[in-house]
């Protein structure tokens, strides 16, 4: 009886090797390697024999092994908190599709607020020699960024502001100021802001710009916070805002999920009519914002546009490793729906 392969004996997966392709094609192992290496010298006759043998055997090139030997892989990491939320899901999906289309392998590393978890996440990508890391979460600290820079790994930060990495920045300031002007144009003097205790750079920038511009326009602002930047956080913050502060006419929520929580609490728990009694503006324009239950006026983060810009920056960085940091800024256009009352006519 023929001897069995050890991989089958212990239940391990067995991959077709380049040696088996070489034996079937009647060529050397190096000829197989050259056939599947872009730009390598190999005769057309040899290429045809190797390609035919590989197809018949089902051989696939081990790109991970090649990358590790070259001290560079096709892996691109995405560090993300709250990966289950609507906008983050859209963002990860859009980036992943473009990475795959470019011949790369996206690797998602979920993370949280803890410094230990953040550093462990990035250390994982460094051990696997990821070509670059895309930091979608606002949570990791400067120490996290320093780890990448000490190892020479390109880092693209989305919605952050520290020196060193390449950046895709969001024009949070213009969106927050626009929300204030929308409320002021309708004669509102007492307005609110709903945010969370997460304290990511994007959220802090939105809050600070909103507070500053409201003060410049002489508006009174009340801020309430949920624990997280999600539906439950919006519901909790709404319960505080609407119970403690009478006469609030307009509320800007730092994302759509919090706006949904606010709207449902206001309508179903307090009987408040939106927008007749209370105007609400969100940020993200997730698909649910267009649903009939919400019809939320919001600022749009375009996940596809962000992904395309991230890929542009990635390609530019990999082609010019020593170039100065690349900074790109994206706008957040206003999407008008039904949660802000019309301006009263003269």
From TrEMBL:
InterPro entries cross-referenced by the UniProt entry: HTH_LacI, LacI/GalR-like_sensor, Lambda_DNA-bd_dom_sf, Peripla_BP_I
Residue span(s) of domain HTH lacI-type: 16-70
UniProt name for this protein: LacI family transcriptional regulator
Keywords from the UniProt entry: DNA-binding, Repressor, Transcription, Transcription regulation
Domain of life: Bacteria
Organism expressing this protein natively: Hoeflea marina
Lineage: Bacteria, Pseudomonadati, Pseudomonadota, Alphaproteobacteria, Hyphomicrobiales
Pfam families the UniProt entry points to: LacI, Peripla_BP_3
Family matches, as SMART domains: HTH_LACI
Gene3D superfamilies: 3.40.50.2300, lambda repressor-like DNA-binding domains
A single MF term (Gene Ontology): transcription cis-regulatory region binding
């Amino acid at each position: 009886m023929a001897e069995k392969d050890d991989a089958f004996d212990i239940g391990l997966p067995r991959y077709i090797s380049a040696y088996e392709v070489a034996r079937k094609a009647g060529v050397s192992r190096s000829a197989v390697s050259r056939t599947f290496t872009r730009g390598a010298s190999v005769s057309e006759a040899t290429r045809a024999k190797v390609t035919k043998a590989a197809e018949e055997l089902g051989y696939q090139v081990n790109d991970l092994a090649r990358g590790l030997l070259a001290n560079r892989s096709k892996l691109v990491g995405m560090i993300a908190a709250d990966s289950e939320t609507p906008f983050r899901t859209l963002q990860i999906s859009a980036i992943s599709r473009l990475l795959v289309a470019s011949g790369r392998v996206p690797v998602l590393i979920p993370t949280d607020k803890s410094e230990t978890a953040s550093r462990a996440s990035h250390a994982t990508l460094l051990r696997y020699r990821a070509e670059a890391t895309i930091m979608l979460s606002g949570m990791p600290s400067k120490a996290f960024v320093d780890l990448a820079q000490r190892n020479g790994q390109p880092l693209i930060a989305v919605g952050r502001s520290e020196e060193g990495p390449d950046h895709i920045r969001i024009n949070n300031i213009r969106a927050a100021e626009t929300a204030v002007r929308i409320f002021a144009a309708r004669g509102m003097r007492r307005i609110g802001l709903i945010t969370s205790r997460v304290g990511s750079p994007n959220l802090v920038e939105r809050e600070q710009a909103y507070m500053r511009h409201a003060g410049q326009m002489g508006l009174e602002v009340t801020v309430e916070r949920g624990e997280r930047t999600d539906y439950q956080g919006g519901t909790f913050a709404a319960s505080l805002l609407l119970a403690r502060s009478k006469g609030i006419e307009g509320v800007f929520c730092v994302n759509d999920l919090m706006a949904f929580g606010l709207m449902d609490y206001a309508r179903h728990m307090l009987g408040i009519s939106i927008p007749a009694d209370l105007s609400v503006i969100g940020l993200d324009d997730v698909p649910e914002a267009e649903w009939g239950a919400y019809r939320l006026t919001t600022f749009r983060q375009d996940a596809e546009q962000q992904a395309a810009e991230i890929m542009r920056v990635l390609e530019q960085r990999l082609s010019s490793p020593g170039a100065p940091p690349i900074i790109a800024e994206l706008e957040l256009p206003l999407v008008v729906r039904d949660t802000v009352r019309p301006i009263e006519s003269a």
